Amino acid sequence: ADYQEGASHVLSVIHEILAHHRQLESKWHAKKIKLHQRLALRLFQEDVKQVLDWLEKHGEVFLRKNVGIGRNLQKSRAYQKSHETFEGVVQNTYTNAEKLLAAAEELAQTGECNADDIYSVARELESHISSFARRVEQRRHVLELAVLFYSHVEELGNWFSELKSELVSEEVSETYEGAERLVEQFSTQRDSTLDACASTIAEGEALTEELKNCGVTTEMDSTGSCTSVQTTLEKLSTEREELGELWSTRKLRLDLCLQLRLFERDALELSSQFEVWGEQLQTGELPRELNEAERGMRGLDEQLNHIQSATFNVVQRGQDLLQLFESSGISLMADSQYNGETRVQVLLEYLQERAVDMEDLATIRRIKLEQCVQLATFQTDATQVMRWIQNTEAMLMASFTIPGCLQEAEQLKKEHEQFQVAIEKTHSSAVHVRQ
Fold first, then answer.
1. How far apart are CA 317 and CA 386, in angstroms?
2. Residue 318 burial (C-beta neighbours within 10 Å; 0-12, 13-18, 19+)
3. What single DSSP character describes residue 128?
């Protein structure tokens, strides 16, 4: 009985010890988990601190030291390359921050740690990272704008040098079609250049505005790049004004050349027409009938008016062009021998001489036509007189009768007196036709 009691007591004690051991092990395990979580919290906080320390000691320092954008394309590209390298390094920090934020969410959900503390640290980390990333992005965007601006500035500079050499050239086209093509090319070239210049200036102004948005001032920028942007914009505006003056002169030269070639073409066409008109005036068949001769006279007047009108129009354009040459002060070579003014004067003198020739030929033609009219009139009058003479002879033959009484004699005498009056009129008409 004593053995049984002792054994039961021992088993009871053993069970009690095992129960306490399990309780102790459970508490120890819970405490271990809690300590691990606390350790994880401390490690999380330490990792966050390391990220924030890196941002402060390296990232922020880099951004503070690199505020300039360069004063030319080469320097801007160097800044851009440096920034790209920096962004590659920063990417590791962004990755670590993302992992830490994910870990913070897991720690907060365990319930063993103060979620507010974890979220507070996480919010601070996220805020710093977001702010830093935004400024890194702004810096990258500013450098992209700078490289774009200076690239276009360099392209415009090279183009301006070529363009100035071309604009001061006195070379012009020798044909009307070529002159017309040069005017069209000039307009296209000027418009495209002005568009490119305006676009580049707009890029520079956008770059300046972006620098202001980033808080970059001239005082902060020890490299002088901000001032360089303003100086470059002023230089572009000045060069645009200089090109405007060169364009005006070149446009006037091309317009004068175009008008000169047009006048030359019209003068050549008029000269060819003079040959046709001269041939018509000299070799045209003379009419025989009075109506045709009178119609020829009217046609001659119309043709002469047309010649005078065509000549006046071309000569007037030539004289206007001559005044333009004199007022513009621009001299251009029409060919290897004459300049523009001399060429116009020579053509004007030639056209005016040929116009006088046409008037002389028209005068001769008019005299011939007038003679044709006179001849046709003479023929008509002569025919009429001959008809009257024949009628008179018939009347005279019919009056050769001897009167049988006094009354018949008096009647015949009266008719003879009327016949004599008709004879005198016919004689007068015949004398007039003869004259």
1. 59
2. buried
3. H
Q: Give the residue among 340, 318, 228 at the shortest CA–CA distance from 271.
A: 318
Distance CA(221)–CA(223), nearest Å, equals 5
For residue 412, give the nearest of 423, 388, 390, 396 by alpha carbon: 396
Q: Tokens 């050239």 sit at which residue?
A: 169
Q: Are 117 and 107 in contact (CB under 8 A)?
A: no
pTM: 0.67
What distance in Å separates the CA atoms of residue 94 and residue 100, rounded to the nearest whole number?
Answer: 10
pLDDT in tens, the chain (435 residues): 567 777 787 788 888 888 888 888 888 887 777 777 777 778 888 888 999 999 999 998 998 888 888 889 999 999 999 999 999 999 999 999 998 888 888 877 876 667 788 888 889 999 999 999 999 999 999 999 999 999 999 999 999 988 888 887 777 777 888 888 888 888 898 999 999 999 999 999 999 888 888 777 777 777 788 888 899 999 999 999 998 888 888 888 888 888 888 999 999 999 999 888 888 878 777 777 777 777 778 887 888 899 899 999 999 999 998 888 888 877 777 776 777 888 889 999 999 999 999 888 888 888 887 788 777 777 777 777 677 777 766 666 666 666 667 776 677 677 666 666 666 665 565 555 455
Q: Two tokens at 336?
A: 């290897």
Q: What angle do CA 5, 6, 10 make, to 5 degrees?
A: 120
List phi, psi (to 5°) of 339. -85, 180
Determine phi and psi for 405, rounding to 5 degrees.
Answer: -155, 175
| Long-range contacts from 149-152, C-beta under 8 angstroms, 24+ separation | 149/200, 149/203, 149/204, 149/207, 149/229, 149/232, 150/70, 150/72, 150/73, 150/76, 150/232, 151/73, 152/196, 152/199, 152/200, 152/203
Tally of CA atoms within 13 A in the half-sphere of 129 that contains its CB:
22
Contacts of 376 (CB under 8 A, 6+ apart): 287, 288, 289, 290, 293
The neighbour count for residue 146, using CB atoms within 10 Å, is 29
Q: Specify whether the CB–CB gap between 351 and 271 falls below 8 A.
A: yes
